[in-house]
């Protein structure tokens, strides 16, 4: 019966947090690719969308929800790996505009292909948990079973990725390959495989995000399902710093909460404007991102 | 080096994102003066063929459901072509994807109705028929007029299409949003006389015409909100959530929606999340049950649209006495190009029925125009003929000073995830003026012309 729990502010904080962890996950997947290969992947929303269609499409064949989720994630790994090997490998060392143009093109191809194969009609995903907000004293509390699941899943993915990078030999090899491929190669690290793995991880994280988005936003799974979320995730990654996984997550959550307040207290038609404003101001103040350490160069 | 590269990349990425954002938020205001190709006496018409075209959302936010409308019209044309066409002329229908003028990253068409319309003009086409959208078609009125190309049966209920003085070649087809809003207001006044009514509409003529109709009908919403399509796209529908929360806080008992299906889904989803269930009254163009239910399919709760009241100018599919129902199935079953998986038990969606409606209207107008016609004589025929045998509930009738289209229909109720049913079966008619009363219709459309059967 505590009015604070059902207050407008609390509702905005919780709603923003739920959206923000999703933006944080998208930002994290962008950062993973950037850190491992130095490429800004504009198809970061479309690749997992495609993998999600592959996996969740099996629902039509009476496969149950969780196996479909697992297959989607495996398909995400596969899409990421194949893309790196076939499409991206030849772009390393080329002018930076090249991979951007290629990945924007790939995005259009993937979304077009998904529309041709599965149509643009929204596909409802069975929701494993209730999306109806908890009620306290007859008023909605701002969290539901599904949004709690969403937050737990996002935190779990973040912890797994952080642990992988920090505490495992594989993570060390991934970091070494990204930081200094030549030295890593001399030390016996199979740099090519590490780069592929970076893309696989990134698309796997993206696939988890896509399933959450398609289940929660009542828009279903469509070829464009990740377009808007990608835009906010990109802003989060740029604001937090493309080198900083922690920055990506924190800025994703912050942007989610800020935009929720903008939508509630001003007008939700202004959220694009405010998001772009945050991006522009942050790049003017700290072009490398709020959470990236400044590089020191000895002269 | 690394820092400079990162800055360049961040700047490039930001610039691209800004471009997308600006285009999404902005309105395309382009005028043009494409040169007209003279390839025949009547452009787009030969002895064996008539070429017409349309800009429609085949991809993007509005494609859900709406993409079926033009395809269904094309099924009518294919059916007529299979019966030797109209006076020996086959109808060739070219659909150009304009993504509803709202670019998403994944729009596979050109998200610019002007460019796609110019592409149609270069064919050339005799007319555009059934192009979809209010802001999109507003943006090409001058272009089509300057090229002398009729803009027929615009698939939108805006009153913009009835502007004979400025655009003599422009014709609407379905009942306008203003008239529909008045009929909704009449229903709310009689069924929910004391209810706190609120309104959410699209921030363009669609929403503002609907709101004007509701106001003209005597209902003053206590809370009125207009959503931007751009914000809806970018936020994956989440942008309407705060409006719904406000309606709940304001204790709105009746909520009138002038929303496209994607926005209807987002609204119903947000309300479901909040445990909020007002009485929904949803404009025809945003209420098609099959389209609206799609994202909810498989959910462990009933379709949240069930019980909502809407409006139809066409017979609902539950009306089995309607001879057009069997005819429509026959036509869609015969079209193996656009409806390969349509079977005898498939549902005819509202969007398919819409396309069938104006598709039939076009072929009937073509028949009425005779074997030898020009653009001018076609328009004269259109404005001097009453089409009493179309799939609509009331006859289709234009006049020299009236290019709006249908003016009547009945209230419907969403019965299931696939079906609308008439609420009480009473067909009402009204006009687009604020003072025109809502009255029971006295003239009805009936039967199928023998040559079309």
For the structure shown, list the relevant keywords:
A: 299 residues, mainly alpha, two-stranded antiparallel sheet, 11 helices, 2 strands, globular, B: alpha/beta, Rossmann fold, four-stranded parallel β-sheet
The structural domain count of chain A equals 1
How many structural domains are formed by the residues of chain B? 2
The DSSP helix count of chain A reads 11
Largest beta sheet of chain B, briefly? 4 strands, parallel
**What coarse outline of chain B follows from CA principal-axis ratios?**
globular
Walk me through what this model shows.
- The complex is a heterodimer of chains A (299) and B (453).
- By secondary structure, chain A is mainly α.
- Chain A has one domain (19-230).
- Chain A contains 11 helices and 2 strands.
- Chain A has helices at residues 8-37, 46-56, 65-88, 97-118, 145-167, 169-179, 181-186, 191-216, 227-240, 245-267, 271-285, and strands at 133-136, 139-144.
- A two-stranded antiparallel sheet of chain A has the order 1-2.
- The N and C termini of chain A lie far apart (64 Å).
- The mean pLDDT of chain A is 88.
- By secondary structure, chain B is of the alpha/beta class.
- Chain B has 2 domains: 33-175 and 319-406, Response regulator (Rossmann fold); 177-312, Rossmann fold.
- Chain B is built from 14 helices and 15 strands.
- Chain B has a 4-stranded parallel sheet with strand order 7-6-8-9.
- Chain B is globular.
- Classes of the chains: A mainly alpha (299), B alpha/beta (453).
- At the A-B interface, α1, α4, α9 and α11 of A face α1, α2, α8, α9 and α10 of B.
List the helices and strands and how they pair.
The complex is a heterodimer of chains A (299) and B (453).
Chain A: H1 8-37, H2 46-56, H3 65-88, H4 97-118, E1 133-136, E2 139-144, H5 145-167, H6 169-179, H7 181-186, H8 191-216, H9 227-240, H10 245-267, H11 271-285
Antiparallel strand pairs in A: 1-2
Chain B: H1 2-25, E1 49-56, H2 63-82, E2 90-97, H3 113-121, E3 128-129, H4 134-138, H5 141-146, E4 151-154, E5 170-172, H6 177-191, E6 197-202, H7 205-216, E7 223-227, H8 229-234, H9 241-249, E8 254-258, H10 261-274, E9 279-282, H11 289-293, E10 309-312, H12 323-334, H13 350-369, H14 375-384, E11 386-387, E12 396-397, E13 408-414, E14 420-429, E15 439-440
Parallel strand pairs in B: 1-2, 3-4, 4-5, 6-7, 6-8, 8-9
Antiparallel strand pairs in B: 10-13, 11-12, 13-14, 14-15
Helix pairs in contact in B: 2-12, 2-13, 6-7, 9-10, 13-14
């Amino acid at each position: 019966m505590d009015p604070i729990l059902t207050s407008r502010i609390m509702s905005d904080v919780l709603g923003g947090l739920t959206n923000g962890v999703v933006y944080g996950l998208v930002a994290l997947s962008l950062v993973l690719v950037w850190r491992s290969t130095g490429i800004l992947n504009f198809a970061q929303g479309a690749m997992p969308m495609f993998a999600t269609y592959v996996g969740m499409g099996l629902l039509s064949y009476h496969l149950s929800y969780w196996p479909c989720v697992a297959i989607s994630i495996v398909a995400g790994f596969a899409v990421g790996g194949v893309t790196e090997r076939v499409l991206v490998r030849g772009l390393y060392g080329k002018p930076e505009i090249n991979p951007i143009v290629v990945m924007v093109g790939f995005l259009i191809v993937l979304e077009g292909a998904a529309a041709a194969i599965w149509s643009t009609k929204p596909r409802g995903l069975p929701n494993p948990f209730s999306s109806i907000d908890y009620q306290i004293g007859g008023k909605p509390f701002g969290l539901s079973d599904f949004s709690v699941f969403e937050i737990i899943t996002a935190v779990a993915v973040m912890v797994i990725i952080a642990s992988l990078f920090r505490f495992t030999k594989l993570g060390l090899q991934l970091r070494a390959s990204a930081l200094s491929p030549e030295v890593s190669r001399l030390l016996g690290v199979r740099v090519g495989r590490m780069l592929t793995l970076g893309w696989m991880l990134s698309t796997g994280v993206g696939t988890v995000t896509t399933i959450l988005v398609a289940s929660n936003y009542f828009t279903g799974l469509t070829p464009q399902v990740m377009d808007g979320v990608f835009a906010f995730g990109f802003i989060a990654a740029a604001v937090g710093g493309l080198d900083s996984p922690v920055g990506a997550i924190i800025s994703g959550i912050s942007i989610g909460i800020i935009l929720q307040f903008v939508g509630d207290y001003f007008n939700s038609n202004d959220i694009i404007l405010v998001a772009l404003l945050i991006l522009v101001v942050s790049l003017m103040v700290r072009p490398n991102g709020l959470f990236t350490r400044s590089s020191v160069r000895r002269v | 080096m690394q820092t400079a590269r990162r800055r360049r990349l961040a700047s490039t990425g930001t610039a691209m994102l800004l471009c997308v954002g600006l285009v999404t938020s902005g309105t395309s205001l382009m005028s043009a003066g494409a040169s007209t190709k003279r390839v025949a006496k009547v452009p787009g018409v030969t002895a064996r063929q008539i070429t017409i075209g349309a800009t429609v959302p085949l991809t993007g936010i509005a494609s859900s459901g709406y993409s079926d409308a033009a395809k269904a019209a094309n099924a009518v044309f294919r059916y007529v072509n299979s019966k030797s066409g109209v006076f020996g002329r086959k109808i060739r229908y070219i659909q150009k994807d304009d993504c509803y003028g709202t670019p998403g990253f994944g729009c596979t068409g050109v998200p610019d109705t002007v460019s796609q319309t110019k592409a149609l003009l270069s064919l050339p086409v005799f007319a555009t028929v059934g192009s979809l959208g209010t802001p999109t078609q507003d943006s090409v009125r001058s272009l089509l007029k300057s090229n002398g190309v009729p803009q027929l049966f615009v698939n939108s209920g805006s009153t913009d299409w009835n502007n004979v003085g400025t655009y003599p070649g422009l014709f609407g087809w379905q009942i306008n949003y203003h008239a529909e809003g008045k009929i909704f207001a009449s229903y709310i006044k009689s069924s929910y006389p004391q209810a706190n009514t609120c309104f959410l509409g699209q921030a363009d003529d669609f929403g503002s015409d609907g709101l004007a109709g509701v106001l003209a009908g005597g209902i003053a919403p206590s809370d009125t909100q207009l959503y931007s399509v751009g914000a809806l796209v970018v936020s994956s529908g989440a942008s309407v959530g705060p409006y719904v929360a406000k309606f709940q806080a304001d204790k709105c008992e009746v909520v009138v929606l002038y929303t496209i299906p994607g926005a209807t889904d987002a609204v119903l989803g947000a309300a479901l999340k909040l445990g909020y269930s007002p009485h929904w009254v949803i404009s025809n163009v945003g209420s098609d049950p099959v389209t609206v239910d799609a994202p909810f399919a498989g959910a462990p709760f009933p379709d949240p649209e069930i019980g909502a009241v809407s409006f139809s100018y066409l017979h609902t599919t539950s009306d089995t006495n309607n001879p057009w129902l069997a005819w429509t199935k026959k036509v869609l079953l015969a079209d193996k190009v656009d409806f390969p998986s349509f079977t005898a038990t498939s549902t005819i969606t509202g969007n398919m029925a819409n396309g069938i409606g104006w598709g039939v209207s076009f072929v009937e107008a073509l028949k009425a125009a005779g074997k030898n016609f020009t653009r001018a004589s076609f328009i004269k025929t259109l404005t001097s003929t009453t089409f009493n045998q179309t799939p609509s509930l009331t006859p289709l009738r234009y006049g020299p000073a009236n290019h709006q289209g249908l003016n009547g229909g009945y209230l419907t109720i969403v019965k299931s995830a696939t079906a609308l049913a008439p609420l009480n079966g009473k067909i009402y008619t009204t006009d687009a003026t604020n003072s025109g009363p809502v009255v029971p219709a006295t003239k009805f459309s009936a039967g199928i012309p023998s040559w079309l059967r």
